[in-house]
Structure prediction request, 288 residues.
Amino acid sequence: SSELTTAEADWKKVNYYNVYKDIADLLEDEDYDDGSYGPVFVRLAWHASGTYSKKDRTGGSTGGTIRFHPEANYGANAGLHVARERLEPLKKKYPHISYADLYTLAGVVAIQELGGPVVPWRPGRPDAITAAAVAATPDGRLPDAAQGADHVRDIFYRMGFNDQEIVALEGAHALGRCHTDRSGFDGPWNASPTAFTNFLFTELLDNTWVPKKWDGPFQYVDKATGQFMMLPADIAFKTDPKFRQYVEQYAKDQDLFFADFSKAFVKLLELGVQFPEDAPVYQFKPLE
Ligand code: HEM
Prediction:
């Protein structure tokens, strides 16, 4: 609808190959975390999109609403200003791109440039110009890491995903880490948090996961080294038999995981979006 359209955003006036390259140039920074903004870009794209509800068709990446209060300040989104601020110069450089397109494209670039599958992406998400122009989705639409399989299903079924797609998406936890000053949890899931791999699944199955002894929120660490972590919600993928069958498949077959992840991530980034009919689908080539 018209109140969702900015004066500036005009998806036809943007060269997305150039934006892709410029986002890729923003990924590396040896002083940030494990050396890459890629993981936090993926989390931004996911949290921008994962508010969708198929029941009332509200939420999703449309509007770029994650940059506004109150959504920006929901507990689940703690720390994502880091990603938005890193991307802001590109909004200045390419004023015609919508924030909604920029944030979702950043997730695609990060997945691809960190060695993951090609993720087809379409432009044309309109932006909300002001927070007041769009009704914010209520808090609590993103998953709570302290809970288990029932909660995870409630959240992802609401978006319209099935068990196989949920497991595929969870594989993104091969990337990045938890931060005590964001979620309260601590540590990376594996030894190569800046590479997109099927390691979430291999680590889940190959290690014994024990409660971390600390004052922070309840989480798991690997028994052998204590260096790697799992959230209670991650452990549910090992203990729930229906989730686990896909965990086992993806642990054995990285190509299958890559193909299924790509499809599910495209679906996630397009939830609730009404694209212009003439918006093309881009399949960007990883740069190297
Ligand atoms: C990080 C929870 C699903 C991508 C995190 C963090 C939590 C979390 C607590 C740590 C945030 C921080 O402290 O910085 C969950 C739960 C999920 C889920 C409970 C579902 C059961 C997903 C999905 C994706 C994803 C579907 C993407 C497809 C990421 C990435 C990071 C992350 C890439 C690392 C961010 C960074 O390194 O800054 N997640 N998540 N997560 N999540 Fe998830």
